[in-house]
Write a structure and sequence with these properties.
By secondary structure, this protein is an all-alpha fold. Helices cover about 65% and strands about 0% of the residues. It has 3 domains: about 140 residues, no CATH class; about 55 residues; about 110 residues, no CATH class. The chain is globular.
Length: about 325
């Protein structure tokens, strides 16, 4: 498998050390996904180390790793943990991250299973403590996920709490929290889902690549971390179709637009760095200016389409 990789991976012991730092030691460990790993080692680590004893944040970090490596081989391990045995908030949040992972990297059948589990979580007694996270999970799905049940449950709970809130401040605060999720967070997630579907449905491949690059670069109508990860995932998929040259050309065109904008030079640097890293990720020829940008201190900027060199690993 190593011969198929576009980079030389670190050895298994180093891979385990870096994954432990990023996933298990999430609070004080490395801040970005380790990018020079053999997917075989990543799969092995997750099967051995990712279990219900860990903090929910470790599951979020694991989701990023599975996403970055397009690790469909580990899906069966993740599915086995979804046993409808959630008894506390930590386990509930772990399950939210698990279904998001499955929805993001799985095939149609896997996404359908994840959508079914989402509905189970909607009906769970702990759901009301995590409506914001449930709305966030919608971002991982396509049209296979129906949110009517979630909307109805939140609306009913809002009405009950609002009535109690006339004499109880705590109930009124809870009602306002639900109202914010119902009328802000969830509509935002649905709007972003519609945007993704619009891009995917474009018949013109060049236009689809251009819009995806703009979304990844943060130079579009929406600016959101999950959208950026989605765009990176789509660009990797397009790359596997042999369209690297089109991706690189689009990235460079977007970068030119940003250079011609009225942003300050300091503001432009983050875009320059993101673009140059992505061009290098897809094997493009770097210009003198792009090489210079990559040689500059990055101020801790984390980008999805990025592969470390020995000097850049953190």
């Amino acid at each position: 498998m190593n011969g198929e990789l576009p980079y030389k991976p670190v050895d298994e012991a180093t891979a385990y050390k870096e994954l432990k730092s990023y996933i298990i030691e999430w609070k004080y460990g490395r801040k970005s996904v380790p990018t020079l790993l053999d997917p075989v080692h990543v799969d092995k680590f997750l099967r051995e180390k990712l279990d219900r004893s860990l903090h929910a944040n470790a599951f979020e970090r694991a989701r990023r790793v599975v996403d970055y490596y397009d690790l469909i081989t580990v899906i069966d391990h993740l599915e086995k943990m979804l046993d409808r045995g959630e008894k506390e908030s930590r386990q509930f949040m772990q399950s939210v991250q698990l279904i998001m992972t499955l929805a993001q990297v799985g095939d149609d059948l896997t996404r359908a299973k994840a959508a079914t589990y989402f509905q189970f979580l909607v009906g769970h007694k702990l759901a009301s403590e995590h409506y914001e996270q449930m709305a966030m999970a919608v971002d991982a799905f396509g049209p296979e996920l129906k949110v009517d049940g979630l909307q109805k449950k939140m609306s009913a709970e809002f009405d009950q709490l609002k009535a109690k809130g006339k004499t109880d401040r705590a109930s009124d605060d809870e009602a306002e929290y639900i109202d914010g999720v119902l009328h802000n967070d969830l509509p935002k997630a649905l709007s972003e889902r519609d945007q993704r579907q619009r891009i995917l449905s474009a018949q013109d491949v060049a236009k689809r690549i251009d819009e995806t690059c703009r979304l990844y670069m943060g130079w579009s109508e929406s600016e959101d971390l999950e959208l950026r990860w989605w765009a990176a995932r789509q660009l990797r998929a397009i790359s596997r179709e042999g369209k690297n040259e089109q991706i690189i050309a689009s990235l460079k065109n977007v970068a030119k637009e940003i250079e011609a904008s009225d942003l300050s030079d300091e503001e432009k640097f983050a875009y320059r760095l993101r673009s140059a890293r992505a061009v290098r990720f897809f094997g493009g020829t770097l210009s003198t200016k792009e090489r210079f940008v990559l040689s500059q201190p990055d101020e801790g900027q984390i980008d999805v389409l990025f592969r470390e060199t020995g000097q850049e690993a953190n």
